[in-house]
Amino acid sequence: MKNHFLKYTFFGLVVLMSPKIEAQNKAEKVDELSIYRTTPLKTHDLIHTKLEVSFDYGKRYLYGKEWITLKPHFYETDSLKLDAKGMDFKEIAIIDGKKSIPLQYKYDNEELSIALNRKYKRTEKYTIFINYTAKPAELKSKAGESITNSNGLYFINPDGKGDKPTQIWTQGETEASSCWFPTIDKPNQKTTSEIAMTVEAKYTTLSNGKLTSQKVNKDGTRTDIWKMEQPNAPYLFMMAVGDFKIYKDSYNGKEVSYYLEPKYAPYAKQIFYKTPDMMNFYSKMLGVEYPWAKYAQIVVKDYFGGAMENTSATVHGEYVQKTERELLDDNQESTIAHELFHQWFGDYVTAESWSNLTMNESFATFGEVLWHGHDAGQDGEDRSRYEKLQNYLRSQKNGDSPILARFHYKNADDMFDNISYSKGSIILYAMKNQMGDEAFFKGLNHYLTTNAYKSGEPHQLRLSMEEVTGKDWLPYFDQWYYNAGSPILDVTYKYANGKIIITINQSQDSAVQTFTLPLKVDFYINRTKTRKEILINKRQQSFSFDLPSKPEFIDLDPDKILVGEVNVDKKTAADYLFQYKNAPSYYNRIEAIKFASKDRSQESQLILLEGLKDPQEDLRVLSIKAIDLNEKQTKDQVLKTLLDIAKNDKKTIARANAIVKLASTGDTSYKTLIEESIKEQSYNVIAAGLAGLTKYAPAEAHKALASLDDDTQKHVTPLMKRFSSQK
């Protein structure tokens, strides 16, 4: 799952609470966090789930018939418990040949307890028939901060009023599939499936696996049967119903399809066109061919979870659905890559419990990084990785952050955070760096093939890595997966008598572990690089190396694999300028530009001038915003470069920011450029032009905005406000 919601903390609200209530709340919090979240007990194994469903739009009901085949996991048993939330039951029976034997049961609105007709051994399969009605709209949702609704099945505009399309779709993660069919709703269960959906004939359906038959019924409905022949977890079951247009692509003989609202159908290929290349890249890299019968991506209305990697059928929120004009400014390539990588890490092998969510989400986030490296080169990979690092660092304080594999949490939704996503992804990248690509990917292949169609945890990944490399990786996993926090390295350099002395202090909070960190160090002498290796394993250490002269620059951790922070004492603007020009990794360049953005020295102005020509548009934008147009020595060159960006940059966000920057000069010679930008197709560029024109002639800007069509106005108005606030 990809969560696109930002979490904000609002200050200034004073809540008065009695000491008794406050103490009670604290006690409840302690009690919840003290619970050890075990992997769910397997009393039974799901084998096959067959469903026949139809829908009552007026009542928001699902009418279902289910044949669920199970067997005892190990111990013989004469009872069965199923998760089933907010349902009515008409019949529950066991199928014995051609006979149907009614069964006794108890139900508490969340769990269905069934007394079987006899004891069953682990070698015996049996099938339960359930005739039921699911009423998900009547459930009280257990909303969390990331997954904001847990009703499982959603009717969108079921009354068909207004312009909003009528749709039905499901969202099973974490354990909400049991809101629309009885099951053992745990991530360590796997089952094959067959889902027959009876819908109005005008609608399109989508579910897991292959569409094996379609039957038109006499009452104006149609029954579509979707079969999933490989086992997958219940939370990955999905259904979608609505007026969707399908664009069909292919990969290696398998159907790859994109389901969109009719008005977005012409842009399906432009939105999703990289999907087959992604499938090919991941398949070859992992040595495991895309494992499912097809791959579909569908965009639904009012989706609240970002995106969801249902097996063979990913659901996306509306933000992915864009017109050709919108795609000029932005796309959701990272999300598309993230959800696709889940088809291996999450679906093919599933985290055995929510405590082990890192086996799903860390990998999918890591998959984004790798895709950008394949598609955009090392710079693109490093940019993506840097963004993940910053996401994580915003989630920690003084190096203190939760454990990656967490067995104590308030609810499963708490696991969907920057620890499971971002921190976990850069821990994997650091492991790849230490292990080497060949060994690392062979280890991933071993993990996937050994645990195919099963569930896994970090220790199984560790054992795969040990099998491949012959090395004990428990210290690495113990430090990064089963202990909390991250290092903060305070670094000083001193050169004297032909020696460089590096002193490193691990300054993270004293309650946070002391880390063992094998790192590299690059010394630049006369612009020649010399690399050394160090092992940091104490709170304070010094390392000494013989060097012929004082280094011009020292780059600690040049591969930038540290899952933490590095603070170098007395680092100057001149150091950052050298860093930008001579050790130009993405990390070094952005850190130099960020420093220069806050510093007013001549060297910093030169860094920003270099940044205007950076190959990454985000660094060009940072430089545009920060550069000083009043600096006499560089002003002419800066203005010339800004004008070139405003006219010719391939990225509309860079063009837009350059236009706004030029307008801030008040120089009327740029007015024609600004007026012409309002005639462009890009919403970014139009909004920047309008914001710029406002600085010259507010009445003209207002008139120009009013002359635009409604769609363009809707897009550019919020962008105008953003650009107008820039200096």
TrEMBL record:
Q: Which UniProt keywords apply?
A: Aminopeptidase, Hydrolase, Metal-binding, Metalloprotease, Protease, Zinc
Specify the superkingdom: Bacteria
**InterPro entries tied to this protein:** Aminopeptidase_N-like_N, Aminopeptidase_N-like_N_sf, ARM-like, ARM-type_fold, Peptidase_M1, Peptidase_M1_aminopeptidases, Peptidase_M1_dom, Peptidase_M4/M1_CTD_sf
Check the record and name the SUPFAM superfamilies matching this protein. Answer: ARM repeat, Leukotriene A4 hydrolase N-terminal domain, Metalloproteases ('zincins'), catalytic domain
Keyword Zinc set for record? yes
Per the database record, which ranges form the Aminopeptidase N-like N-terminal domain? 48-236
Does the keyword section mention Isomerase? no
EC number(s) in its UniProt entry? Answer: 3.4.11.2
Domain Peptidase M1 membrane alanine aminopeptidase: start-end pairs: 275-480
One Gene Ontology term of the molecular function aspect: aminopeptidase activity
| Required co-factors | Zn(2+)
Recorded catalytic activity of this chain's protein:
Release of an N-terminal amino acid, Xaa-|-Yaa- from a peptide, amide or arylamide. Xaa is preferably Ala, but may be most amino acids including Pro (slow action). When a terminal hydrophobic residue is followed by a prolyl residue, the two may be released as an intact Xaa-Pro dipeptide
Q: Which family does it belong to?
A: Belongs to the peptidase M1 family.
Q: Under which name does UniProt file this protein?
A: Aminopeptidase N
The organism is: Flavobacterium ginsenosidimutans
The taxonomy runs:
Bacteria, Pseudomonadati, Bacteroidota, Flavobacteriia, Flavobacteriales
